[in-house]
Design brief:
- Helix 1 runs antiparallel to helix 2 and helix 6 packs parallel to helix 8.
- It is globular, with a radius of gyration of 19 Å.
- The protein starts with 10 loop residues before the first helix and ends in a 10-residue tail after the last strand.
- A hairpin with a 4-residue loop joins strand 12 and strand 13.
- The chain contains ten helices and 14 strands.
- The protein is of the alpha+beta class.
- It folds into two domains: 168 residues, Fructose-1,6-Bisphosphatase, Chain A, domain 1, CATH 3.30.540; 144 residues, D-Maltodextrin-Binding Protein, domain 2, CATH 3.40.190.90.
- The protein binds 7-O-phosphono-alpha-L-galacto-hept-2-ulopyranose (VTB).
- 7-O-phosphono-alpha-L-galacto-hept-2-ulopyranose binds next to helix 6 and strand 8.
Length: 332
């Protein structure tokens, strides 16, 4: 596969699109075996191990740009780690092998195994800090909402653009003390709030299909790496998103600068968070609004995966039955 050229047409990721499914499927199954055990670290580690094994089998020369942490704090899938067979196109990889570790440990809805693959240098190399995010779905003119506008103005603007009263808008927010004021102000407009305890990659993605998820807008502060992965998916489906890193200490600003962030206050647009062609795959670990969780049958393990490909905007859903992973089969 060495002759595959990264360039117009993006043959490489077309071929790899389906390969990624295997990566997130394996990670999801590994984590799901530890669902509901209250063991966040063990579930995460299982997902990391499985994802790494599968990534290393791919015909790519991949570099982890968003991973489990910086080199000294993460033994595997750390930022800068090279993955793949090295005989293939140079690609950037962003992973969150178990997004929503607590959700998985408590067997609550919404945990997923997720990764993005992009042309080298096109994903924002976000440090592990917070990001203030806003996202809405496709079909609205650019500038309908803005990260720097008040929540009240954003809700009114979105309601106008949608042609509904503010009372028919639903905003998704992560339940955190830091969002108390935001939640109060959103509710004061008449809009509804859906709270999630974790898992804001899916939270942002929900805005892309409001008719199925019931979510019109994402607001609030979540993790920056998750923001970049969500942006990758949103780029494929359409939708608007902005994000700003929360660099509130000298240490964080220095760390961000080391990773190439020259303006600590920059408001990133969707196409700056993920600026090139990207493929995003996510497999459900526990049930959620986006994906079903892994089902363990007597002989068959079932997974539910969604793959977004930005070049064409294709979204595929793959429900798989894995016989070789069934209870009565030996897994490596
Ligand atoms: C989120 C969410 C994650 O961290 O970005 C969040 O997507 C942000 O951090 O699932 P805090 O928990 O510190 O608020 C998670 O909840 C966990 O990684």
């Amino acid at each position: 596969m060495t002759d595959i050229v990264v360039g117009p047409g993006q043959v490489f990721e077309r071929i790899l699109t389906l390969e990624l499914v295997r990566v997130t499927e394996r990670a999801a199954v590994a984590a799901a075996r530890l669902r509901g055990r209250g063991e966040e670290k063990a579930a995460d580690q299982a997902a990391v191990d499985a994802m790494r094994r599968e990534l290393n089998a791919l015909p790519i020369d991949g570099t982890i740009v968003i991973g489990e942490g910086e080199r000294d704090e993460a033994p595997m899938l750390f930022i800068g780690e090279r993955v793949g067979t090295r005989k293939g196109p140079k690609v950037d990889i962003a992973v969150d092998p178990l997004e929503g570790t607590t959700l998985c440990a408590k067997d609550m809805p919404g945990s997923i195994a997720v990764m993005a693959l992009a042309q080298g240098g096109t994903l924002l190399a976000a440090p592990d800090v917070y990001m203030n995010k806003i996202a809405i779905g496709p079909g609205y003119p650019p500038g309908t909402v803005d990260l720097d506008a008040s929540p009240e103005d954003n809700i009114q603007a979105l309601a106008r653009a949608k042609g509904v009263p503010a009372g028919e808008i639903t905003v998704l927010v992560m339940e955190r003390p830091r969002h108390e004021e935001l939640i109060r102000r959103v509710r004061a407009t008449g809009a509804a709030i859906r709270l999630i305890t974790d898992g804001d990659i899916a939270g942002v993605i929900y805005t892309a299909t409001p008719d199925t998820t019931g979510i019109d807008m994402y607001l609030g502060i979540g993790a920056a790496p998750e923001g970049v992965i969500a942006a990758g998916a949103l780029r494929c489906i359409g939708g608007h998103m902005q994000g700003r890193l929360v660099l509130d200490t000298e240490e964080k600003r220095a760390r961000a600068a080391q990773m190439g962030v020259s303006d600590p206050d920059k408001k990133y647009e969707l196409n700056e968070l993920a600026s090139g062609d990207v493929v995003v795959a996510a497999t459900g670990v526990t049930d959620g609004a986006l994906l079903s969780g892994v089902r363990f049958g007597r002989e068959v393990v079932e997974t539910d995966t969604i793959i977004y490909r930005s070049t064409t905007g294709t979204v595929r859903r793959i429900k798989a039955e894995h016989r070789a992973m069934g209870k009565f089969h030996f897994e490596e």
